[in-house]
TrEMBL record:
Biased composition (Low complexity): 372-389
Chain segments annotated as transmembrane: 12-31, 51-69, 76-95, 115-138, 150-169, 220-242, 254-274, 286-305
This protein's name: Uncharacterized protein
Keyword terms, alphabetized: Membrane, Transmembrane, Transmembrane helix
């Protein structure tokens, strides 16, 4: 049973960051209730609340993965410590800016604000590199079942892709580029495409409902790691109820299809945002691509769930057939050994009678005859009697 003590032992620095973010989340909820200030059109405490939840989920997942490493555990520990330090420091800076009533991201209004934003950008880069190195380490590890191992590998790749969306937000918008002619703008970068940040958004997440929003693909991608791991664990749990899922190869195929589909969803939402299109108002082109992705996913799932009979006899035999063939082969080998042993005993018995100058005739029946130049000896090897004329 999972307990706080068990989770804390996974990786202490990461789990301490998780506990710290739980406190930040509680403070943010109180702030959302009591503080009615707006920062860039959003409730002041909404950003720290969202980041707290994201870091809690992400760091707890990384801590669990590090506890399962069988090699390079020390390197993994240091990578986890770097991720913990960077995420905790980012949360401290976000909270600091909220208390000051200033934006934490894209803020270039004062030297202090610009420094805070630059430091946050550097820390996120370090976090991405640490996650990338950890992903490389996981490529050479076997964790639990093969299907789970591949879910982790694919999930790490999707998470890195989602993080890589962040730099797209740091580029100045066309309006900000024009402001550079009159001096440095107060804001550099945006998560909204086609409009300025701070417009109408979805409840809780705040994603723009009137323009493209890169935060959608950023969020979906980062948490692809948790989605893939959860899928693998659910498939293992369902194997007891659905026999077809007992085969780990089937689960691996399902994981592969889901991973490709999830990657496609991440890319689709980023592409939609870059076209300045709200996530809640896709055009016909976006819907067409989404429909094609859904169709390919359905075909992939049908392929993943195929049975040997569906393949028309092609492909590798199922595990049960292999086990049965192995048993049959073992029985045949055992029978051959018994026959060989019996022949060896018979030949040995006949060879023992050569002291009288006899030569075995080689008949495998009960009576074997030995012939010599002066004496004829007939022995019955099974009865153990001999007759001499």
């Amino acid at each position: 049973m999972l307990t706080l003590a068990t989770s804390y032992s996974w990786h202490r620095p990461l789990m301490l960051t998780v506990y710290l973010c739980v406190l930040f989340l509680a403070a943010s909820v109180v702030g959302l209730t009591l503080d009615d200030r707006l920062i860039n059109g959003e409730a002041a405490w909404l950003k720290p609340a969202k980041f707290s939840v994201s870091i809690i989920i992400y760091n707890a997942t990384i801590a669990w993965l590090l506890s399962l490493l069988s090699r390079m555990r020390r390197t993994g520990w240091w990578l986890g410590t770097v991720i913990a330090a960077m995420s905790a420091a980012e949360m401290v800076l976000i909270i600091t800016q909220v208390l000051r009533g200033e934006m934490s991201h894209f803020n270039n209004a004062t030297p202090l604000d610009a420094a805070v934003y630059a430091v946050m950008g550097s820390m996120i880069t370090v976090l991405w590199v640490a996650t990338f190195v950890l992903g490389v380490i996981l490529l050479f590890q076997r964790i639990r079942e093969r299907s789970t191992t591949w879910a982790i590998r694919i999930g790490m790749a999707i998470a890195l892709l989602g993080m890589a969306v962040g730099p797209l937000m740091t580029a100045p918008t066309p309006a900000q580029v024009e402001e550079f002619a009159d001096g440095s703008p107060d804001v550099i970068g945006a998560h909204t495409v086609g409009l300025a940040d701070g417009g109408p958004g979805l409840p809780l997440v705040g994603w723009s409902t009137v323009g493209g929003d890169l935060r959608v693909g950023h969020f979906i991608g980062i948490h692809g790691l948790q989605a893939m791991i959860l899928l693998a664990l659910v498939l293992v749990a369902l194997a007891a109820r659905y026999p077809r899922l007992n085969d780990d190869a089937t689960r691996r195929r399902l994981v592969a299809v889901a991973g490709l589909s999830y990657t496609g969803l991440t890319v689709l939402t980023v592409w939609q945002a870059l076209r300045g299109q709200p996530v809640v108002a896709p055009d016909s082109l976006t819907l067409g691509v989404a429909g094609a992705l859904a169709l390919l996913t359905a075909l992939g799932l049908a392929w993943a769930l195929r049975t040997p009979s569906d393949r028309g006899g092609f492909g590798p035999p199922p595990a049960d057939d292999l086990a049965t063939r192995s048993e049959i082969g073992a029985e045949l080998a055992s029978g051959s050994k018994i026959i060989a042993d019996e022949r060896g005993e018979d030949q040995g018995a006949c060879a023992g009678s050569r002291s009288g100058g006899c030569i075995a005739s080689g008949k495998p029946e009960e009576d074997e005859e030995c012939v010599s130049s002066s004496t004829y000896t007939t022995s019955s090897t099974r009865a153990g009697t001999s007759t001499r004329p």
